[in-house]
């Protein structure tokens, strides 16, 4: 009984706001509008369907979906039933899907037909029960008809706050993806922290555009619902659709990648749309160069903030606040969220003072329960009583945290360490460069050679020599790229992370040619 009286559970968020704002719009997607009362009833119907179908607390439900209102119903319905939501990125390889399926043994798979069909044989190998959300595929029952006769009253399920609510998988850039077990408490407390940090109010209209299967958008959307505000869902990024959505729905708060904001800035039809409703814009995943940031604040929205976190430490964990954005430039992460402690640690577990570089570590209620079936990696992540991020940083004189690089992305060249992010921030200052990344590639003389991979803006004819000359004006000699490779696009995850490991692998023999320029 005590667990019922004092529990913290994700499903409570929807029920409580249905009681407070029954007729208020919770979700808008196209012409579809769903009130908080309707959302509560739909999530209850789905939870009852799961339990009446024989699923039990702790069973895993895997989803392969794009952004739509049903996805919000599905994830919250799973939570209300006490089951575990396992969202996956539909774009991962068949091998990764097989690995995940074999690991978690899902009891039910829910997906959109267009995303399920390319790997339907894989899903059917590991599961026999399917629901289809958008479209229909072989062996699946349509989602909405399946739940329409279920009771609209929430099922009575005992849920502990540290029960695993969802398992989200990391990108697996250095091996098999790791399943991160996230508790009800982590999602609940992180969303409350975000509300306070972002100064959300009940009248906000917030955009859901980034993939809901990723922790950053999921926490942003849950924060919106926790506040009792309205979220407008679109299925992906297209500059003109985004600007039209902001104008038509008077979006007040949004989250996007820096490159997306830059594409809005340079869009030929930008002046045709009214973006003045925007009150606060959040960016993440990559740094924002000074020139773009200044333009964003002047031309898009007066308040920009950087949010950081990771699946293992449910976001946001740190915030580089709007009032700091134009006071200091660089790869700043700012200060801890009000729900976290943050420190910088050396390899022996000593906490480091201002100015010294070490690994960024955290503590707080939003830390993961652990890696699913991977106790060894979990223990490593909690050495010395802190959660280890794998990121390097230091505190500046004002106790703002500066991100240096991922441990694995530091370029070791000629006896010097070069943070890839430092090179990237300079590359992005170039007016002809749309996107860029720096990696270290094997080199017989330098050990690793700093190498720039660049996507030029449409119509730009900037050469390698132009880019290298520009870098020499802003970087030390050992930090300047030894070569520039121009690409039509950079390899990216669907959440906007540049896949440096793919570039390292594809171009590992780049410098194994006789060329004086590379020496």
UniProtKB/TrEMBL annotation:
Signal peptide: none annotated. Pfam families: AMP-binding, AMP-binding_C. Residues 15-372 form the AMP-dependent synthetase/ligase domain. It comes from the Bacteria. Residues 422-497 form the AMP-binding enzyme C-terminal domain. This is Acyl-CoA synthetase. It comes from Salinibacillus aidingensis.
């Amino acid at each position: 009984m005590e667990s019922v009286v004092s529990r913290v559970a994700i499903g409570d968020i929807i029920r409580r706001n249905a009681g407070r704002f029954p007729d208020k719009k919770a979700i808008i997607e196209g012409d579809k509008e769903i009130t908080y009362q309707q959302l509560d009833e739909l999530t209850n119907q789905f939870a009852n369907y799961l339990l009446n179908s024989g699923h039990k607390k702790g069973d895993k439900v895997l989803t392969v979906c794009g952004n739509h209102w049903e996805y919000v119903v599905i994830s919250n319905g799973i939570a209300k039933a006490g089951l575990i939501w396992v969202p996956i990125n539909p774009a991962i390889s068949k091998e990764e899907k097989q690995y995940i399926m074999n690991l978690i043994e899902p009891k039910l798979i829910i997906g959109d037909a267009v995303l399920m069909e390319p790997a339907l044989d894989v899903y059917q190998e590991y599961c026999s029960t399917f629901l289809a959300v958008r479209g229909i595929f072989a062996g699946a029952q349509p989602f909405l008809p399946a739940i329409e006769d279920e009771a609209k009253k929430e099922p009575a399920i005992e849920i502990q706050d540290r029960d695993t609510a969802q398992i989200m998988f990391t990108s697996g850039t250095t091996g098999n993806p790791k399943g991160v077990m996230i508790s009800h408490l982590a999602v609940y407390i992180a969303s409350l922290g975000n509300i306070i940090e972002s100064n959300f109010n009940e009248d906000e209209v917030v955009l859901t555009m980034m993939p809901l299967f990723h922790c950053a958008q999921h926490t942003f959307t849950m924060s919106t619902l926790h506040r009792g505000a309205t979220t407008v869902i679109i299925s992906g990024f297209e500059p003109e659709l985004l600007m039209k959505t902001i104008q038509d729905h008077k979006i007040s708060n949004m989250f996007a990648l820096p490159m997306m904001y830059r594409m809005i800035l340079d869009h030929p039809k930008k002046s045709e749309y009214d973006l003045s409703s925007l009150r606060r814009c959040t960016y993440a995943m990559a740094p924002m160069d000074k020139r773009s940031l200044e333009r964003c604040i002047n031309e898009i929205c007066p308040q920009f903030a950087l949010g950081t976190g990771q699946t293992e430490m449910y976001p946001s964990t740190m915030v580089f606040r709007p009032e700091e954005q134009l006071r200091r430039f660089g790869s700043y992460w700012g200060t801890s969220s009000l729900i976290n402690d943050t420190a910088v640690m050396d390899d022996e577990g000593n906490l480091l003072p201002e100015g010294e570089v070490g690994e960024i570590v955290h503590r707080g209620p939003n830390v993961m329960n652990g890696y699913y079936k991977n106790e060894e990696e979990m223990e490593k992540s909690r050495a010395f009583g802190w959660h280890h991020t794998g990121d390097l940083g230091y505190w500046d004189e004002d106790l703002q945290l500066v991100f240096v690089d991922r441990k694995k992305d530091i370029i070791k060249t000629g006896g010097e360490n070069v943070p890839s992010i430092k090179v990237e921030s300079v590359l992005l200052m170039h007016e002809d460069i749309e996107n860029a990344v720096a990696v270290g590639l094997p080199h017989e003389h330098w050990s690793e050679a700093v190498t720039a991979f660049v996507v030029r803006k449409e119509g730009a004819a900037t050469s390698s020599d132009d880019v290298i000359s520009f870098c020499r004006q802003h970087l030390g000699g050992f930090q300047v790229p030894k070569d520039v490779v121009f690409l039509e696009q950079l390899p990216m995850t669907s959440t906007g992370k540049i896949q440096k490991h793919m570039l390292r692998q594809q171009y590992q023999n780049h410098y194994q040619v006789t060329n004086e320029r590379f020496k």
